[in-house]
Write a structure and sequence with these properties.
alpha/beta, Alpha/beta knot, 2 domains, 7-stranded parallel beta sheet, 43% helix, 11% strand, elongated
Length: 257
């Protein structure tokens, strides 16, 4: 029996999310802040191992601030780390301290790139974050396949729990979006055309010529060329061009008035 395929199958099905696992977290506020950091970048799979103050925690809910509360609502709570990672094929451990363990050490960028590749291949991935006081123990890190280490100031390498979560969540989200690294916000206008910039240059040359700016004559052509180059370097909008024309006209009126 043949089954018809969907009329419009998704071109790029979403990649399964990693589980962010907070190991023995101590403060409810940090759990809530971690939930906010996760949801900022579309992550909702939180797990906790033996939270110090029990669960649920009203301080975590208050800190999660509204929408991020749903991350906490669906968070899994486990008594031990082996239980929390039992279904995971690949585990990352975040740590700032050196370890006497032979493991790959990755930046958050590289780790989340690898996590995406594993997740896309159908592998369940987890990222471990340690308790606020001293981070993950060696016994925790030993259960991981790789270490995530943030290149921070070696004289002050300690990161807040939510900060560490935010860095990894950001790298996960960044690599899954097509956001341009830089855009120009035009605020209701648009970029000036080449002819509009050309006419602005003509206007400036005319006024500067009348004011005797291009002196001595032997340097005049070079000075005009530099001005043309200046205009072409600027991302001028139509509003900018109109403003500069208006300034020149007003200066002329004041001079002749």
């Amino acid at each position: 029996m043949l089954i018809d395929a969907p009329a419009n199958p998704p071109a790029n099905p979403p990649v399964p999310q990693p589980a962010f696992i907070l190991v023995r977290p101590q403060m409810g506020e940090n759990i809530g802040a971690a939930a906010r950091a996760m949801l900022n970048f579309g992550l909702t799979h939180m797990r906790m191992v033996d939270p110090r103050d029990g669960w649920p925690n009203p301080r975590a809910v208050a800190m999660a601030s509204g929408a991020a509360g749903r991350v906490l609502d669906h968070a899994g709570v486990f008594a031990t780390l082996p239980e929390a990672v039992a279904d995971c094929a690949y585990v990352f451990a975040t740590t700032a301290r050196g370890r006497d363990l032979t493991k790959p050490v990755m930046t958050p960028e590289r780790a989340m790139e690898h996590a995406r590749a594993l997740s896309a291949a159908g592998q369940k991935v987890a990222v471990l974050f340690g308790p606020e006081r001293a981070g993950l123990e060696n016994e925790d890190v030993a259960r991981a396949n790789a270490i995530i280490s943030v290149p921070v100031n070696p004289e002050f390498p300690s990161l807040n729990l939510a900060q560490a979560v935010l860095l990894c969540a950001y790298e996960w989200g960044r690599q899954g979006t097509a956001a341009a690294p830089e855009v120009l916000a035009l605020a209701g206008t648009e970029l000036a055309t080449a002819i509009e910039v050309e006419k602005l240059g003509d206007h400036f040359e005319e006024r500067l010529e009348a004011a005797g700016f291009f002196f001595p004559e032997s340097k005049a052509e070079g000075m005009k060329l530099n001005l043309r180059n200046l205009w072409s370097r600027m991302p001028l909008t139509r509003a900018d061009v109109q403003t500069l024309h208006g300034m020149l006209r007003q200066i002329l009126r004041r001079r002749d008035g």
